[in-house]
Amino acid sequence: MFDNRLSQSNTVLKCKKGQQFIIEGAPVNGLFFIKSGTVKVFRTGINGREQIVRFAKPCEIIGHRGFGTQEYYSIGAIALQDSELHYFSKEHLQEALLENPKFTYDMMLFYANELNRSENKVKSISQMTVRERVIDTLLYIHRKFGDLLGYINLPLSRKEYADYAGTTEEQVIRIFSALKKEGLITTRGKKISIVNVSKLKTEISEHNYFLDT
């Protein structure tokens, strides 16, 4: 998506696991492109509770929703693994958008797709039960990060599953226990293996689980 001139005007940042590189409410000064690693994007909800917006992997952009007319980031971002990021300043992005119509068009399509995906996700989640939201989260993580030695290739805490699914850690533990008894998943510590992907897909198929990638 980025043009050649812009790709030469970035700063490479290396973040350790657990390091926060976007502070929610801080002034917007640019966006980040993930070269390696995994990132958690979140925002603060009611009573200060964390709500995970998405998980991002290499070749994805972070901080783009703050770029434009907004003055402050509406999200925060933390590296879940040691990560390498390319940082592009707001000034360089604005110059590229003004001077490169193709880049501007690509960005417009990117934002349109993001908006459409977000609207569809909100609609689907509002109609899901807690169990369906947890299953949707499992399938989303599995679909996005794949398997490693039979387990989902992104070990997350039960709280992180809850913060993405919009429920409590206790509910996630209870639902995981039920899914294990039904033979749909197995667990080993934080690691989760989906035994029967098709059955989980079928359970939430009416909600278009495939919309969020």
Keywords:
213 residues; alpha+beta; Jelly Rolls; Arc Repressor Mutant, subunit A; 7 helices; 12 strands
Q: Brief description of this entry?
A:
39% of the residues lie in helices and 25% in strands.
Percentage of β-strand residues: 15-25%
| Radius of gyration based on Cα positions | 18 Å
Overall geometry comes to globular
Structural class of the helices, strands and pairings?
A: alpha+beta
Largest sheet: 4 strands, antiparallel
| Biggest sheet strand line-up | 1-8-3-6
What would you say this structure looks like, in words?
This protein is α+β, with helices and mostly antiparallel strands. The chain folds into two domains: 4-124, Jelly Rolls (Sandwich), CATH 2.60.120.10; 127-211, Arc Repressor Mutant, subunit A, CATH 1.10.10. The protein has helices at 4-7, 90-99, 101-126, 130-145, 158-165, 169-181, 197-203, and strands at residues 11-15, 20-22, 30-36, 39-44, 50-56, 61-62, 76-79, 83-89, 147-148, 151-152, 185-188, 191-194. The protein has a four-stranded antiparallel β-sheet with strand order 1-8-3-6. Strands 2-7-4-5 form a four-stranded antiparallel β-sheet. A two-stranded antiparallel ribbon has the order 9-10. The radius of gyration is 18 Å and the shape is globular.
What's the SSE blueprint?
Blueprint: H1 4-7, E1 11-15, E2 20-22, E3 30-36, E4 39-44, E5 50-56, E6 61-62, E7 76-79, E8 83-89, H2 90-99, H3 101-126, H4 130-145, E9 147-148, E10 151-152, H5 158-165, H6 169-181, E11 185-188, E12 191-194, H7 197-203
Antiparallel strand pairs: 1-8, 2-7, 3-6, 3-8, 4-5, 4-7, 9-10, 11-12
